[in-house]
Each structure stands twice: as structure tokens, then as C-alpha cells.
């Protein structure tokens, strides 16, 4: 059996009588960009939440970076999220009364200690060097998403999770964000799991898996 | 009942062992063995000393030793603070020695000896059989072993620096001393500070010939007068008391963080810094606890819970010849070794005095006041009389002698059936010494 940064065996998540994710066996090798597609309610976000340690499985085994998440305590899980995971949401979830650089520093604060110079440099890397002191309300959707990317990568995660990060963006901004992620991945060598409805966005990945009603129905390897 | 009196000392002892074990994590067997051996030695040695020398000498010695530990702690704290302000951290040879088994064992042994000695000082001098000492030694050893087990349950994050270790051990010694008025160090310290300040101010400003000096005019006395206030000793004492532990806290707070500039990845760099800051924060726990213990020691010293023999003054009157007669076997027994107070009033004036049988079997009569402090009077506890105002302990042997903090002795005649005191002389003595002194102490106006 091949080993990867993520290994699931019979991974299940139920909410009462509803089984959001049926026993799933999945291996994601380190450095891979995996796109997850499926219609609404197919279990994409459930899978992402489980892999990111935001939720606990009902059954099965889930190893991420060699750690069995089921055995981790709440503190251990929080430490795992802090040090191992970066997440980009569709809705950004930026703190509205903090500036772009302060939003990035907030992630540093919860990880270790804030370092403004490093936060500025991260924003410069995503092309927002001129928008450091702007609050989220003063930024466009694409710019806000780039702040989210800076915030997600600032702590050098091994695994970057994206929950429809381009869902709210126009085509131009989408291409800009995806280009940026590709560039950063080449530099930082992190693994990406990205949930999307957009076939074009999924095509940026190395592999796409399709979920339907909590079951992995198909997988497709992209051309390099 | 005797063991109940030792509870606070036992708790302190367990805390000392606990902190020593945490301070020398690689030397647990040596530290615990040295602690137990030291405790037994100190208990035995203290007991022998107390039985060999009557009077206050053994208590003065142990009080001096604990005072010495405070001076040692001052040195440690200043060194720690000085080191923390240095530019580069260099591990010196003395630090290697401090971390060695020999040092850990010696420090634990000395701590044990001191604690055992303090426990011996708390036991009643006259009626403590050898078995009592053995029970206390057994209790000390049991507590040390309990601390050994308990230390393993403490969070691993809490670490102790050498200065922090000294802080908590010395603060616990000071706390133990503050539970016994005859060993208390804070009150004598405040008195020394007050005396030093008064002497210094007096000598210094007298030499400048105020108010004739060219620059320093008489109005300055309004400010200089503040240094003569009663609270100078207290505040000065607090500074001496708390400064070393504050220095230790500052030394830890000012410790240099590790050099991380060479680490390329920002997250790793920040994580290292965060770990160092977190470790430093946990290292502050022990000195902060020491600070609280020292504050508790001050509180105990200011408001001791010792039971004083504090009789209400009995009113007496003079016969037509002006003499006060107090029978030896009357309402009270003057020869029972206790302090008996009386109040004499005449012509709108009054004087308080007491009669006491000294351990030498001699009756003595003295005013219920000294020539220095406010006339708050005296109580009797633990083989001494104690001034309620300044908490100075006066051995029973020296009561009846003039000077200093001693109660002002008065002339009397001892007869077979009682003592006779001249009423007029008594009123005059009170007026001439006590009230005049009080006027000066309250501002000299």
C-alpha cells in the first residue's frame, strides 16, 4: 500500500441518520494538488473538514502527516491545525476591523508570535504590497482572497485546504488566484486539497476525485 | 497539639523539597536523600542547642542564619539581574558547578538542616521529650517522600531557574520565621531601617547646620520630617524584603531570546521564539509564588497569631502615705512567672505598670512602656515580653534593666508579703519618660 500525507481507511461521517460521507479509502501523496468535485451535499466539505481537523469522523481511520487524528485530544487537534494546516474559505472570513497585514499577523499570533515584517513580505508575495494598511472592506474580492492565501501560507503549512476559494470571483480574479497558488506550491512544496464546483478550476490540480452522495464515484488524473 | 503548631512549617518543608526536586530534575535521589538527612540533622542539632543554652541565644543564631540566607539571596538576585542585562549568554564554569550533584546535594542538605532547626525552635523548650523529636523527624521524612511523589504530577512546563529556586526556598524560610515572633525578621528589619534612617538624617543634616546653611533652608525640615515618620521603617523594610525577588523576576523577564535570525523559514523561527517566551513565562511562576510567600511573611509579621498573655490592668490606689502596695498572694499570684499589669490614677494623671517574676526568681516592677516607642504596652509570649508597638521581643532575663526597648524600670521595695511603689514617683516617671517621648515621636511640636 502506498503511503501519502493523507491516508483514510473506511472514513465515515454521519449526522444522526444522515451519512454525509460513506466509508472512504483515499491516499493523497505529499505535494499533490487534489481537486474534489461533486454536487451540493455530496460530502466535499465534510471531507475537507475532517482532513483539516475541524470535525471528527464517526468511523474509520484518518492519518494526516503520520498522525491519527482520531486519537488526538482537542488540544492536540488545535495544535495540529495550527502547525499543519492552512485553509482558504470561499467567504474569506477576514476580521473586518483589522488591516490586511493585521489579519495575516493574527494567524501568526495563534501559531506562535506575530512578526510584522514577515506578514508584510507574505502580502508582497501575493501582490498586495500596496494594500497592507487597507481593511477587508476596502479590498476587492480577488484581493481579499489573496489576503486569505497570505494568511493561509504564513505559517508554512504542509497541507493547504481550499473550500471553493474562487467561488465568488470573476474569471480574471480566479485565474490570478490559481496562478498564485500554483506559484506558491512550486516554492513551498505543500499539498493542496481544493473543493470546487468549477471544472476549469479543478483542472489546475494533478488529480480530481468526484463524490456523489458521500461516495467516491470517480477519479481522474490531469495532464501535466 | 504540638504538631498542630508545626503545620505551617511542615507545609513549607514539603514545598521546599518539591521545588528542589523540580530545580534539579536529574538529581532527584540525591536531593531527596540530602533533604531528609539535613532535616533530621537540623532537628537534632537545633534541639541540642536549645537544651544546652537557656535563653535566647539558640534563637538568635537560627534567626541570624536565616537572615544570612536573605543576604545570600540578595547576592544571587543581583548576579542574576546583572547577567540578564549582558549582551551575550555565555555558560560559565560556576553555572556548571551549580548544576552538579555536589551543589544540588549541598543546597538540599543545608535547606534541610535549616528547616529541621526551625522545627526544633517551634517545639516547646522544656517539655519536649526525645520521642517528640523523633516523631517530627519521621513526619519531615514522610513529607519529603510525599513531595517526591507529588513533584512528578506537576506540569512539565513549570521549570525553575537557580535564582528562582533560591527565591522560593529563602521566602519559605522567612515565612516560617514569621510564624514565630522570636524568630521574626521583618519587624527587626523595619526597626533597623528606621533607626538607620533617623541616625543618618540626624547626622547628615545636623552636620549641614540647618537652618543656617546657604542653600538648605529651614523649610526643608517639612520634607526631611517625613523621614522621621513611623512608616519609614516599614516601607524601607519592604524595599529590602522584596527587592531581590523582584530582581529575579526582572532577570527572567529580561533574559535574551535565542538567536533565530539564521533560520530561513519564518514559521520555524517564530515557533522557536514562541517556545522560548512560553518557557520563560513558566519560569516566572516560581518567583511569583515566592513574592506571594514573602508578602504572607510580612502579613504574619505585622499581624502575628501568637497567643499573648495580655492581662487587663488592675486599678490600684495609694495609701495615705502615697505608697502603692501590691500583695504577693492576693487577687493574683505575683510569683507565677506571668506579667501582671496595674493602673494607677492620681490627680488627673495616670500610669500603667507591671510586676513580673523573672526566671532568676527576682520580682521586678516596670512601666508598661519603653522610652522609645508609643506606650502601647507589653504582652508576654514564648518566654519573652513583646512590645505591642514595634513587636520587639525582650527576654525575661533583661526585664528590669534600663535602656532601649526594655520596659522602663521603676524603684520599688520588696517586702515578704508584697511590693511597695511610691505613687508620686510612678506618675512622674511615666510623665517624664513615656509622655515626653511620645510628644517627640509625634512630630516634636
What do you see in this structure?
The complex is a heterodimer of chains A (224) and B (445). In chain A, helix 3 (100-111) crosses helix 4, helix 4 packs across helix 5 (141-153) and helix 5 (141-153) runs parallel beside helix 6. Chain A has a single domain (6-219), classed as 3-Layer(aba) Sandwich (Rossmann fold). In chain A, the strands form two sheets. Chain A has a six-stranded mixed β-sheet. The mean pLDDT of chain A is 89. Chain A is globular and about 45 Å long. In chain A, a hairpin with a 2-residue loop joins strand 4 and strand 5. Chain A has seven helices and ten strands. Chain A has 224 residues and is an alpha/beta fold. Chain B is an alpha+beta fold and 445 residues long. Chain B has two domains: 2-180 and 235-300, no CATH class; 314-441, Rieske Iron-sulfur Protein. Helix content of chain B is 55%, strand content 11%. Chain B has 14 helices and ten strands. A four-stranded mixed β-sheet of chain B has the order 1-3-4-5. A three-stranded antiparallel β-sheet of chain B has the order 2-10-9. In chain B, strands 6-7-8 form a three-stranded antiparallel β-sheet, with no helix packed on it. The longest helix of chain B has 28 residues, at 57-84. Chain B starts with a helix and ends with a helix. Residues 441-445 of chain B have low confidence and may be disordered. At the A-B interface, loops of A face helix 12 of B.
Amino acid at each position: 500500500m502506498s503511503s501519502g500525507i493523507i491516508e483514510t481507511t473506511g472514513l465515515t461521517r454521519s449526522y444522526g441518520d444522515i451519512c454525509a460521507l460513506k466509508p472512504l479509502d483515499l491516499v493523497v501523496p505529499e505535494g499533490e494538488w487534489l481537486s474534489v468535485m461533486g454536487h451540493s451535499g455530496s460530502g466535499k466539505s465534510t471531507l475537507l473538514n475532517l482532513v483539516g481537523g475541524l470535525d471528527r469522523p464517526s468511523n474509520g481511520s484518518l492519518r494526516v502527516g503520520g498522525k491519527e487524528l482520531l486519537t488526538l485530544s482537542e488540544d492536540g487537534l488545535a495544535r495540529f491545525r495550527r502547525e499543519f494546516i492552512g485553509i482558504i474559505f470561499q467567504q474569506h472570513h477576514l476580521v473586518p476591523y483589522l488591516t490586511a497585514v493585521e489579519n495575516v499577523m493574527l494567524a501568526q499570533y495563534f501559531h506562535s508570535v506575530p512578526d510584522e515584517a514577515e506578514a508584510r513580505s507574505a502580502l508582497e508575495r501575493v501582490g498586495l504590497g500596496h494594500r497592507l494598511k487597507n481593511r477587508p472592506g476596502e479590498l476587492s474580492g480577488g484581493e481579499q482572497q489573496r489576503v486569505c492565501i497570505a494568511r493561509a501560507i504564513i505559517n508554512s503549512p504542509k497541507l493547504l485546504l481550499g473550500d471553493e476559494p474562487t467561488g465568488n470571483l470573476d474569471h480574471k480574479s480566479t485565474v490570478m488566484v490559481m496562478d498564485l497558488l500554483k506559484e506558491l506550491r512550486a516554492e513551498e512544496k505543500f499539498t493542496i486539497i481544493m473543493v470546487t464546483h468549477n471544472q476549469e478550476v479543478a483542472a489546475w490540480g494533478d488529480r480530481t476525485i468526484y463524490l456523489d452522495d458521500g461516495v467516491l464515484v470517480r477519479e481522474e488524473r490531469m495532464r501535466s | 497539639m504540638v504538631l498542630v503548631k508545626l503545620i505551617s512549617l511542615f507545609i513549607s518543608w514539603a514545598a521546599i523539597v518539591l521545588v528542589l526536586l523540580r530545580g534539579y530534575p536529574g538529581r532527584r535521589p540525591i536531593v531527596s536523600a540530602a533533604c531528609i538527612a539535613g532535616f533530621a540533622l537540623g532537628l537534632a542539632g537545633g534541639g541540642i542547642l536549645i537544651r544546652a543554652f537557656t535563653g535566647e541565644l539558640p534563637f538568635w543564631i537560627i534567626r541570624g542564619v536565616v537572615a544570612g540566607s536573605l543576604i545570600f539571596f540578595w547576592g544571587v538576585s543581583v548576579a542574576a539581574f546583572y547577567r540578564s542585562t549582558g549582551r551575550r549568554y555565555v555558560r560559565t564554569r560556576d553555572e556548571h558547578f551549580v548544576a552538579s550533584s555536589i551543589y544540588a546535594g549541598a543546597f538540599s542538605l543545608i535547606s534541610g538542616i535549616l528547616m529541621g532547626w526551625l522545627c526544633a525552635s517551634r517545639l516547646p523548650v522544656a517539655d519536649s521529650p526525645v520521642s517528640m523529636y523523633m516523631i517530627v523527624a519521621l513526619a519531615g521524612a514522610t513529607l519529603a517522600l510525599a513531595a517526591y511523589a507529588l513533584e512528578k504530577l506537576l506540569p512539565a512546563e513549570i521549570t525553575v531557574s537557580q535564582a528562582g529556586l533560591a527565591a522560593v526556598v529563602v521566602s519559605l524560610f522567612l515565612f516560617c520565621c514569621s510564624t514565630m515572633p522570636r524568630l521574626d525578621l521583618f519587624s527587626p528589619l523595619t526597626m533597623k531601617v528606621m533607626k538607620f534612617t533617623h541616625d543618618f538624617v540626624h547626622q547628615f543634616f545636623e552636620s549641614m547646620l540647618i537652618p543656617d546653611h546657604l542653600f538648605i533652608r529651614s523649610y526643608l525640615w517639612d520634607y526631611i520630617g517625613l523621614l522621621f515618620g513611623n512608616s519609614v521603617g516599614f516601607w524601607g523594610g519592604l524595599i529590602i524584603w522584596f527587592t531581590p525577588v523582584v530582581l529575579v523576576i526582572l532577570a527572567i523577564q529580561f533574559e535574551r531570546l535565542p538567536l533565530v535570525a539564521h533560520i530561513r523559514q519564518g514559521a520555524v523561527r517564530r515557533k522557536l521564539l514562541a517556545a522560548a517566551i512560553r518557557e520563560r513565562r513558566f519560569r516566572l511562576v516560581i518567583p511569583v509564588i515566592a513574592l506571594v510567600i514573602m508578602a504572607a511573611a510580612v502579613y504574619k509579621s505585622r499581624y502575628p497569631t501568637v497567643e499573648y498573655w495580655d492581662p487587663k490592668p488592675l486599678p490600684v490606689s495609694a495609701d495615705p502615705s502615697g505608697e502603692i502596695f501590691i500583695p504577693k498572694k492576693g487577687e493574683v499570684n505575683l510569683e507565677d512567672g506571668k506579667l501582671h499589669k496595674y493602673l494607677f490614677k492620681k490627680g488627673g494623671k495616670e500610669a500603667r505598670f507591671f510586676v513580673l517574676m523573672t526566671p532568676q526568681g527576682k520580682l521586678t516592677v516596670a512601666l508598661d512602656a519603653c522610652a522609645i516607642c508609643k506606650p502601647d504596652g507589653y504582652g508576654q509570649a514564648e518566654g519573652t515580653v513583646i512590645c505591642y508597638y514595634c513587636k520587639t521581643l525582650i527576654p525575661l532575663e533583661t526585664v528590669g534593666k534600663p535602656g532601649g526597648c526594655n520596659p522602663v524600670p521603676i524603684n520599688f521595695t520588696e517586702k515578704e508579703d508584697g511590693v511597695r511603689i511610691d505613687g508620686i514617683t510612678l506618675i512622674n516617671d511615666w510623665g517624664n519618660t513615656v509622655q515626653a517621648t511620645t510628644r517627640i515621636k509625634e512630630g516634636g511640636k
